[in-house]
## 1
Amino acid sequence: MARPPAAQLAVQTVDTSYLESLMGYNARRAALAVIEHFLVVMAPYGLRPVDFSVMSLIVHNPGITSRQLCAALGLLPPNLVGMVNTLQKRGLIERRPHPSDRRALALHPSEGGLALMRAAEPTATQLERRATAKLKAAETKTLLRLLRKIYL
Amino acid sequence: MARPPAAQLAVQTVDTSYLESLMGYNARRAALAVIEHFLVVMAPYGLRPVDFSVMSLIVHNPGITSRQLCAALGLLPPNLVGMVNTLQKRGLIERRPHPSDRRALALHPSEGGLALMRAAEPTATQLERRATAKLKAAETKTLLRLLRKIYL
DNA sequence: TATTGTTATACTCTATAACTATA
DNA sequence: TATAGTTATAGAGTATAACAATA
């Protein structure tokens, strides 16, 4: 039963086994899958993933500076300016003088910002349970721990 | 020992514990960490992550179509055109008529493309060992398996 | 009528250089 | 001399609409 030359055969099912052996490929696909759902459930709050991260850090670290935000989130300062401006215009945060460095500004959540995040964070946590629905509780804990060992 | 109001204190260390409890945040940070190294070690081959993925799928699936590439990698057809053009101009791949569908084109690696990937893939595999250096072999296997359960 | 590959185009994200005010 | 925040801008990545050729 001789087969025709492989070059003349159409590809039926794509073999992705090699790519699936690579950590970067899998981590990126997993991140995009979770973020895809995140975009949907966070749309009512008007928060993109990066806005959510920024707001969350400001809420949990009132008085944080732009520079500290950039370092914590891997953002570049010029790219943070617009986000902070927008959040301020929406009345979600305030820029106050820094207590010890007059170059810096201390970022604080407004009452509205606090209220928004008191609703948004549980929504994000709820999304987590959906994203990890195929995993047992112990597996989810293991996955988070191992991911941190990759990038920390 | 009364402390001054929190609002007037500078943030010393940023608390990221909430974000670190989220799968999307961790997966994205891990992916970016691995890709950062990938960019460095793949620069000599002139391959970005997406170029590497495309070339790898063409090598392992000779005759694959653009549409199949897009579906496998989550790319949009208009964004693949330029990449395929560039790879063809570099002499790494060939566009041949599809054996059964005259609308489609079958993508094949050239001899030069095969030679490049015979060098690039081991380099990527070697990078994996560096990226997962803090993990035991069993942990790496577990991490890959759990990540696939997130996005598949 | 639907699909493949393609062009054109817009939008978002990320990166670099340079400026000011202050440390 | 170095750093925080900012502006302007360039580049890369991602998105939609529409077209010709073929199924």
Note: Chain B is about 60% helix and 5% strand.
## 2
Amino acid sequence: MRISCQDCPLRKLDSFQAFSASDIKITDALKHGELRVDAGMPILEEGTSSPQLYTVLQGQGVRYKTLESGRRQVLSFVFPGDFLGLQAAVMEEMDHSVESTTEMVLCVFDRKDLRRLYRDAPERAFDVTWVAAEEETMLSEALTAVGQRTAKERVAWGLMRLMQRSKASGLARRDRAPMPFRQTDFADAMGLSLVHTNKTLSMIRRAELATWADGWLDIHDPEGLAEMAGTPLNGDHCRPLI
Amino acid sequence: MRISCQDCPLRKLDSFQAFSASDIKITDALKHGELRVDAGMPILEEGTSSPQLYTVLQGQGVRYKTLESGRRQVLSFVFPGDFLGLQAAVMEEMDHSVESTTEMVLCVFDRKDLRRLYRDAPERAFDVTWVAAEEETMLSEALTAVGQRTAKERVAWGLMRLMQRSKASGLARRDRAPMPFRQTDFADAMGLSLVHTNKTLSMIRRAELATWADGWLDIHDPEGLAEMAGTPLNGDHCRPLI
DNA sequence: CGGAGAATTGAATTTTATCAACTGATGTGG
DNA sequence: CCACATCAGTTGATAAAATTCAATTCTCCG
């Protein structure tokens, strides 16, 4: 009942770098098993150290930080192929939490194996760093959007990004992607109130640029949406899969 | 005219992890030389790939991203001990720019040596990943501050953070640190307008919590400032130095 | 049928940005 | 040495953006 890395469906996607035979073997040897979690469950928690690392095989979730005041910043949306828990593995403690939005299936790795990986498989260790750098890039872009863009631009940008990530992880076909997140999650990601996010979304819907409803996101007019965002998205490059 | 890693003044600071003799040897062997740049010079540029990596030995600067509209988000302030250019080394291209604010001295490493480091010195490779994870943490915190905190909280938080980083890099004594950045830089980091930042700073000054003037930051009342920020800062842990 | 969670909408209020003007320090060329 | 430009910081007035509050709808589920 366990998918071997050899048969991993994510490997076949264009957005992930090709695996060598030895990559497959190394990764498969480290894979402890699979974890299936229900929708709405905590996976990693801020301030705790986790003995395990995960690669998302199926399902979606959110990474977030919570303030003393109860406000919450969604740092990013989690898609298949994402690597979770690196911070706890490297620095002893997570600085954010991760929660499942849909049911999820995770490949489980052991934290203790990470140092061994660095010793025995430098190429894969390099890939781990690559993934960390990739996440840094995503956070930089989010910070720039939240810090400098107006609500309209931000929401348009956020929708483009959600579609881009959906496509890269094989969830979207054409310009239609399943969107299991609530508007509250999206508002917390964009640093906007729920009400204002909702109004901006309906404005975008009326302008016939994109529609987010009933669990699906449709982008009707990619160019128009990019124009509203004030920017085209950075091209997505191929990244390593752990 | 080149400081050997053996004599590196940063090594002696509490905020950096202890170096083993072999760490020193490895790092010293990779150090190509030193680069001295004037204040206000570009060091790395968004969208370009750099053949070199740097560790800041002296001086301060800013990392930032620029939008098409001309607006700018300062991602972080650069202090001694910071590692620059990892993204370009790993992913071929920088996603942000780095500019010196004061005159700076940088240790220069060659990008091509990075893979060799991963092959020959797994412990140091692990440290590189640690640094990347550390930067991710800083960006997460900044995103949370910009996305969820009010202007008052944000500015108070930003000042605390500047002081914390100044102390960690040996620039501050007591609660007084040199502050070569302009208010515009700080405003761009906090996602606020210059005018509003200025007014908030003078409010904090009048409340006798902290004073930023004439190139120096003084924190008169750390507890009061933390209260205004709505949070204490996360304790700073010891991190690796590359 | 009742209740809970999510989305939606209108109205009032607060926060923050923008515009504009002024100060003080610094530096340059005639 | 002085007139003049420049740049960072400061302040007041006004406008725009986004939040908060409140109420309503809709769907799903027990």
Note: The helical segments of chain B are 21-30, 86-91, 113-120, 122-148, 151-168, 183-190, 194-206, 222-229.
